[in-house]
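ok new one. same drill as before - structure tokens go in, u give me an amino acid for every spot. 260 of them this time. try not to just spam alanines like last time pls lmao
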């Protein structure tokens, strides 16, 4: 499994001929509220289309109430619909001075507006924001996407909340992209094919040609658990046979970061 990235104009000009060889899914920002249009969103969408990279879109919202939320939802949908993205994500991680009730009502109205359009909808919200701003009370979206960066907390745990996508670093690397890029891994029961609408020909769970190789991978994971570089849930996932190739690739990056 390749990488799942989210990008904006902060990544500059992406060489999609190179990035496409590593990326299985791209989530492209179209705007920040309605006042700031992402300068690279069209270029990034065209790059994904040209090199057959599945993509969805997201908006970093700035609303303070339901009325503003609906205005931003409409603007977001109208801007993106012509490109036929696989899904739409509302990114809610700042209050901009609004109270909790207004943020929840605005987020719910945003999600409902998009769902009424018959599209797949995701909610992205900060790990620190989820409970204080009652994002756990928002309903009707199709998947939850939560960031929790490895190395920024002593435990280095996965998100405390059940979610479908985990944004685990803002310091990832992808060939064809200059500088850092956010990387994500699947974290729930939804497989990559659910996001891309493509049938996966093969099971992505890890397979081994001999016991020695399997033992070596398990020993590597156990050693890092023993050193408290990663949580023991990773070892449990390996032993249960549900760890995917993508999981392990992400885990190796986490281990490398924490071993520095």
């Amino acid at each position: 499994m390749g990488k799942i990235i989210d990008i904006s104009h902060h990544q500059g000009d992406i060489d999609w001929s190179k990035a496409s060889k590593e990326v299985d899914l791209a989530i492209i920002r179209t705007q920040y509220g309605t006042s700031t249009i992402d300068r690279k969103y069209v270029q990034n969408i065209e790059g994904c289309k040209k090199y057959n990279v599945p993509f969805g879109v997201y908006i970093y919202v700035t609303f303070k109430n339901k009325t503003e939320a609906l205005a931003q939802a409409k603007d977001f949908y109208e801007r993106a619909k012509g490109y036929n993205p696989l899904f739409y994500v509302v990114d809610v991680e700042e209050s901009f001075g609004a109270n909790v009730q207004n943020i929840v009502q605005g987020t719910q109205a945003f999600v409902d507006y998009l769902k009424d359009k018959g599209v797949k909808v995701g909610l992205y919200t900060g790990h620190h924001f989820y409970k204080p701003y009652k994002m756990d009370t928002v309903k009707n979206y199709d998947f939850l996407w939560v960031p929790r960066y490895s190395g920024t907390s002593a435990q280095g745990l996965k998100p405390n909340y059940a979610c479908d996508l985990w944004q685990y670093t803002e310091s990832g690397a992808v060939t064809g992209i200059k500088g850092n890029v956010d990387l994500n891994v699947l974290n729930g029961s939804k497989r990559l094919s659910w996001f891309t609408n493509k049938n996966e020909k093969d099971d992505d769970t890890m397979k081994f040609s001999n016991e020695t190789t399997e033992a070596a991978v398990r020993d590597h994971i156990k050693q890092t658990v023993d050193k408290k570089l990663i949580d023991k849930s990773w070892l449990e996932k390996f032993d249960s046979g549900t760890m995917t190739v993508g999981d392990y690739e992400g885990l190796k990056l986490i281990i490398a970061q924490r071993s520095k």
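The chain has a mean pLDDT of 90. and btw Residues 211-258 form one domain.
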